[in-house]
Amino acid sequence: MAKSRIVEIDPVTRVEGHGKVTIHLDEDNNVDEARLHIVEFRGFERFIQGRLLWEVPVIVQRLCGICPVSHHLAAAKAMDVIVGAKHLTPTAEKMRRLMHYGQIMQSHVLHFFHLCSPDLLFGFDAPVEKRNIFGVIAEYPELAKQAVMMRKYGQEVIQVTAGKKIHGTGAIPGGINKNLSIRERDALLKDIDQMAEWARGALQVAKNYSVDNLSLVQSFGSFPSNYLSLVREDGALDLYHGNLRAINSQGRAIFDQIDYQHYHELLVEDVRSWSYMKFPFIKKLGRLDGWYRVGPLARLNNAGFIDTPEAAIAHQELKAVTEGKPNPTSLANHWARMIELLHCVEKIRELLLDPDLQGEDLVVKGERQEEGVGVIEAPRGTLIHHYRVDKNDQVTFCNLIVSTTHNNEAMNRAVTKVAKQYLSFQTKITEAMLNHVEVVIRAYDPCLSCATHALGQMPLEVELYDADGALLDRNSQHIK
Amino acid sequence: MSDSPKKRLATTSLAGCFGCHMSLLDIDERILALIEQVEFDRSPINDIKKITRRCDVGLIEGGCCNEENVHTLQEFRRKCDVLVAVGQCAIMGGLPVMRNAIMHSDDPLKECLYEAYIDSPYIQNDNHQIPNDPALPLILDRVYSCSEVVKIDYQIPGCPPSGDMLWQTLTSLIEGRPENLPLELIKYD
Ligand code: SF4
Questions:
Q1: Structural domain of residue A252, as residue ranges?
Q2: Phi, psi of A230 (to 5 degrees)
């Protein structure tokens, strides 16, 4: 009789960061469970202690080179609270918003085109050699060029607001260190119409995929859940600032318009032995029922409306598919992501035309506080930074819940569901089958770089496998 | 170097933030020219998970935090003619190296672990467990730079090096010509 065994996907590719999947099969080759493991660590929460408050927004973004702006801004927003800057100047807030929209634009383009589009354009079981951005360049050169140029544009928005494309320094506690010059503004305005046109095209590609493959999208790693995001006071989508809202699978509010300074009264994290990434859940619903999803689709499920005209219409079209109820799928995240891309382009245009960006009033200060929370909607979802700082301006405590961590439970469920569907009772497990599992992970655009911020020392381990590679025994030496 | 007309390039991210890979994509439309000259082997942007054959150039982002990083780095050294450490993390350890230097502590790693999984007031960890599973690679006692582990042929400094800097150094490496980098390219914040 065959033994139970574990199949690995290591490393998961075309995602950002380091992770692997183990698929656990029983004697009959039935998939028991599949797990997405976060295998890397940093230790940020501990080693940031003792650093000065103004350093934090600059250091913390080095957790993640894909959405550094999100960390930079979330940390700066927490530090705003600590330096007592209750309201930023219009110039500071709008410069930060511009930076953030540039960031989401580049990240969404990168994710959709560079990483995921090969699966959607060529099929989940296309040959490995073809299933990458170079394959897309070869077969869809025009689309690939647009993707490269849209990402470049987003990076240039970041460059002029943060001073550098990756790991810039624009946001400081209480404000921003530069405004936008007329020359910088005009350089960006020149191409904005082109960007809008390409963003509409990208949205069309993502929407058509969902509509043309409706039954696949509806079944592939799809399940009901709760959803969490920031929303504006009037319920609109707001990627930079707002209050916390969570809804259940039917769209009813679990909590709404909660000031995120109190996030820890709502959310708590569970720890499991097999991943360094924790498992957050809504406290009052408990571990079993309290898990939720974040990210583009969760945001569009949560938002009452979008305040830019073209994205607003696209949002209505998406909602119509589920008759206004929350969309439970994994793959429709791509559609939602491209709606947000168009929204960002519309917002960038609005901001570029706003004379406040040439204002000179950049920083405010107020009454010093000991503790502050900064929350932002990063490309992949709600990002929480929480710090305490002593009177010498040194950090004494830090807690981060990154977007990908919020999706931990959901991604593991999605991975298990897809693995059961495509891998159970197969006599031979092929590379193409395994790619199906990766496709569902990619729908969440997990940033495993961000997720590695926690650090641990692994206990010393010895593992024993039998001839078939099955794990026989494991000896661990725990830290005392 | 191999005799196929195109050079073979492999890239990996060890204990890095992916910023160096993002910067490589900041060569923007020059990526079209790049793929005229090179073919990608193992890289996080395609689905090749182990190096398939001998490569001319290997780019390493990030230092070594765990045993898997070490194995990957050794694989790259064995299979690449020229190995390049890209960015501060690969060259000196970068941000992750801050964990080597936690002050006033006999056991900094244990502190980090407890901070994240046991002592945090915002977790619910009834069994007081710390992640510990065969699927998780062994973490090293400290973070190592790449050149502490294998021989590194070139280093490209920056956090990250800009897209222009990567373009210049990569093309000269591929074409086998010496490079004179202007000051603006190697000046950092
Ligand atoms: S050198 Fe900088 S950009 Fe590169 S991986 Fe390290 S932190 Fe990220």
A1: 224-307
A2: -80, 145
Answer whether residue A299 is part of any domain: yes
Domains: count for chain A: 1
Residue A248, Cβ density class (10 Å: 0-12 exposed, 13-18 middle, ≥19 buried): middle
Tell me the ipTM for this assembly: 0.88
Nearest CA in chain B to A130: B46
Rounded distance from Cα B14 to ligand 1 centre (Å): 10
Exposure class string for A394-417: b at 16+ Cβ within 10 A, else e: ebebbbbbbbbbbbbbbbbbbbbb
- Structural domains of chain B sorted by starting position, each given as residue range(s) with its CATH number in brackets: 7-97+139-186 (3.40.50.700)
- CB-based contact (8 Å) between A478 and chain B? yes
The C-alpha atoms of residue A99 and residue A240 are separated, in whole angstroms, by 10
Residues 6+ apart with CB under 8 A from A256: A243, A245, A246
**Which residues of chain B does A16 touch, with a Cβ-Cβ cutoff of 8 Å?**
18, 44
Q: What are the structure tokens assigned to B63, written together? A: 């230092």
Q: What's the whole-model pTM score? A: 0.90
Answer whether B66 sits within 8 Å of A149, measured CB to CB.
Answer: no
Nearest CB to A64; choose among B18, B23, B132: B18
Neighboring chain A residues of B134 at a CB cutoff of 8 Å: 461, 463, 471, 474
Is A295 part of a structural domain of the chain? yes
Q: Say which residue the tokens 């020149």 belong to.
A: A190
Which residues in chain A are contacts of B16 at CB distance < 8 A? 65, 449
Tell me the per-residue pLDDT of A330-385, one tens digit each, with 9 for 90 and over.
Answer: 999 999 999 999 999 999 999 999 999 999 999 999 999 999 999 999 999 999 99
Is A284 part of the contact surface with chain B (CB cutoff 8 Å)? no
